[in-house]
Amino acid sequence: MKKIFTGQSPLGFLGFRHASAESQEMPSYLSGYKPVKRMHKAASVGDITQVQRMLIFEDVDVNITDRKKRTALHDASAHGQPEMVSLLLWYECNIDVCDRDKSTALIKATQCQHEKCVHILLENGADTNATYADQNTALHYAVHNNTSIAAELLGHNADTKVKAKGGYTPLILAVLENKQEIAELLLKKEVDINALYHCNRSALIRAVRAQSKNMISLLLQQGANDSLVDVFGATAQSYSVFESFKVLSNSPGPRCPEPTIKGDAYDFDTKNACTPRSCPIKESKQQIAELPAKEKAKAHAEETLGRCKW
User: What percent of the chain has pLDDT over 90?
Assistant: First the structure.
């Protein structure tokens, strides 16, 4: 016999009035995420009455999928319907089922920054480490989008060491996007602070190249290795001098393409890749963190760069 939900959820979804789908702009993550089946359409707009009618009287499977393997839970999560998410979970829908793009409801809710949906899914045991088609986890998207969601995912044991396509850990993404608060949250967990991504660069090298003093200090305080060498033979120490020299001389230096966001993932401009060059320089951690005064840096840079083989 079918279950009929008669109790009051913490969010009180039985009394919920759904918003008109036409009255809301579609976020970029929902591009192409238009529900097709009646069940999915009703779930996407929070039509509790319609969904219950289909589940109870029409014998519709709560896990029914569309041609892209999306369930009603995917649509409810993507369109920010926490009451509907609670209802579907009460009817025992599959919380971790993947759609054609390997996206779970949790990943979709995180992409779209629906904090209430994320909270409900996590409280009901959603897998925090499920990976999207590009190997991004929900935590990768939270680093890019939402500090609160990132904190909640970390509170539910999200893996901080998992690498997405290109070698990006959540910490590396936080440094790439200069998300200081999220970086601090991640560093309170067990992270690989010296993990390498494109061009064999560490988070510290990226912070030095971006001349982000606060991020540099944070990473050094947490034990980041300043002597790791990238594919160009350069360390964070050598980049600290070279970046100062570029600022003073207005001279562009050798370039390794940094990632840009294309769609849901990071991508690279590979047309302007540079030739590896070696500049072995010895500097102290304190000098890196402080980014030396202009005149001192200029004199030091000119002297050092004069010894390098370009």
Answer: 62
What pLDDT sits at residue 55? Answer: 96
**Where are any strands of DSSP class E within the chain?**
259-262, 265-268
Q: Are residues 166 and 198 in the same domain?
A: no
Distances (CA, A) of 95 to 5, 134, 271: 18, 21, 42
Are residue 75 and residue 157 in the same domain, yes or no?
no
What 3-state class would DSSP assign to 216?
helix
Residues in the chain: 310
Inter-residue long-range contacts of 27-34, CB under 8 Å, 24+ positions, other chains counted? 27/112, 29/78, 29/108, 29/111, 29/112, 29/264, 30/78, 30/79, 30/112, 33/70, 33/75, 33/78, 33/108
Residue-range definition of the domain harbouring residue 4: 1-18+25-127
pLDDT at 233 over 90: yes
Band of residue 258 on the pLDDT scale cut at 50, 70, 90: low
The pLDDT confidence band at residue 244, using thresholds 50, 70 and 90, is: low
User: DSSP code of 257?
Assistant: P
In angstroms, rounded to a whole number, what is the distance separating the alpha carbons of residues 216 and 276?
Answer: 24
**Model's pTM, two decimal places?**
0.74
Domain boundary among the residues 97, 127, 157 is at 127
The count of domains in the chain is: 3
**82-139 pLDDT, tens per residue?**
999 999 999 999 999 999 999 999 999 999 999 999 999 999 999 999 999 889 999 9
CB 184 within 8 A of CB 214: no
Buried b (16+ CB within 10 A) or exposed e, 279-295: bebebebebbbebbeee
